[in-house]
Predict the structure.
Amino acid sequence: MPPNRDNLSALVEFIGNRPIIGWKLEPRISALNALLSKQLGFSLPNAQIDVAKLHQRRLRRLHPEIDAPSSFAQALTCWKVPALGMQSVLGEATASALLYMRLQRTMAEAA
């Protein structure tokens, strides 16, 4: 189903005011904001949490001498997060959320 005003309105309503969490968000949010601006006249104001950046930061703190793996699959393996249905958008979103939760927990334990 192509993006139209009704679909995008439903998506915005579903997202609400919650933060958007994902792996390397910038290109995806930019594309979504372009559609929203064109169809609805505004972009998402939501906070964005890029799990790739959290992963890089956490690994730099733990192992400053090592370059952190940059792929999503490597990050999931590194933090022992199951790669659930990575062939689907829902699977990737679920894995991103689980990775975010794991990173938050490890940061809290280190504090």
